[in-house]
Each structure stands twice: as C-alpha cells, then as structure tokens.
Model the fold of this input.
Amino acid sequence: MSPGVGPITVVLATDSFLIGDGLASLLKDVEDVEVIGRARDSDELVRIVGEVNPEALLISIRTPIGSTMATIAAARDLRDAHPDMGIVVISDRGNGHALELLRDGASRMAYLLDERVPGMDAVVGALREVRAGQSVLDPSIVDALVHRRDALTIRDLTVREIDVLEQMARGLSNRGIASELHLSVKGIEKHVTTIFRKLALPDQNFVDRRVTAALTYLHAQNAPFEVPIEPTNSTS
Done:
C-alpha cells in the first residue's frame, strides 16, 4: 500500500503496561489507524520499526524514569533514519524533552502535554497531521520556541543535564542528586561542571554558582529559553 493511503500504521512505545494497553484499546476503534507494533523500551522500538516500517510512532514518556533519555535518543535516531515517518509524543514534561526532539526541526513531529490533551481525538488528529507532513505542538512549546534567543540558556543543556539542574533547584546535594537519578556521584559532578560551563557561570568567590544555576532553571519554567539570570557582581 502506498504511503498516505489507507489506515495509518502505528507503533506504540511506552514502558507502562497500563498506558500501552489503554492507548492500544482506544485506537482499536479508530478506522484509519492500525497499531502494528508495541515497544516497551528503546532497543525494542528500534528493532520493531526496522521490521514493520510504520508511518508513525506514538510515544508516551513520563518522568522521572531512567528509560526516558534512551527513548528520546532512539526517537531522534529513527527520525534521521526514517524522515518520512511521523512521531507523536505524549509527555508530562515539555521543556528539555521537547527541545531535544525538536532541535532538528518540527516537520512530521507532534508533541502533546498529557495534562492538556482533551481526548483521543486530539491524539488521532496529531497522527493524521504528522503523516501528512505537518507538525502539532502544544501552545506552551510553541511560545518557548518562538521566544527563545541566541544567548546561552537551559536550551543548550542535554536532557540529563536538565534533570540534574532540576534536582539542584530542589536543593539537593550532588550525593542526593546521584541517589535520585541513580547515577554515580562522580558522574553528577561532571554534569554539574558542564552545566556551569554552558550557563557561563564562572568560578568566583562572590557568586554561588549552584544558587545561580537553580535560579536560572526556575526562571526558565516561567519564561522558557529566555536570557538567563546574570550573577550579581556585588561583593556585599
């Protein structure tokens, strides 16, 4: 069957058995959508896509989970390998995850925040749009992309670095972050050093870089991707 003709062939990807079953059950009654594969992790996703060559992926990701980064990386790789395949993501988080997937453009991409999805009609509509070569983005993500600037901000951080920064903003120490994200303390220390470098936070006696980095993160939640808060030069 030619691409764009007949039911949209879809591979579901979620590490949640219940969410996967729920999506599959709801899509079963949609005439122009056919689920032809289901994946529980990134490796399985790559394998199944290679085997069945779907027209679209429907990916559900939630945080904090260890597999999220791997799923996002797999989705980006699959997008490069299959440029005509659409990708619809339903997530509980829009900042770093969305940016990671949209770095190379939004063509054939849909990113929906689950708390704002009115129902399955919106998901099915997104699948139809990405097959047609269009994009569907939550308004908050559109606003973030429209207003982002060229200055260094948290948009320059990787998903893992944003995860670390988020824990810093909660006031956790490196050891606490390591425990929360199931990483080594040494690995967290490397991430923190990279975060400071990317946010252009110099090692100065009168600046607490952890506090400034945390403020930058918190500021970005209200004004995503805008110019970061500058450290004060006051010595008082």
About this structure: The chain has two domains: 8-147, 154-222. Residues 148-152, 223-236 have pLDDT under 50 and may be disordered. The radius of gyration is 20 Å. The first helix runs from residue 17 to 28.
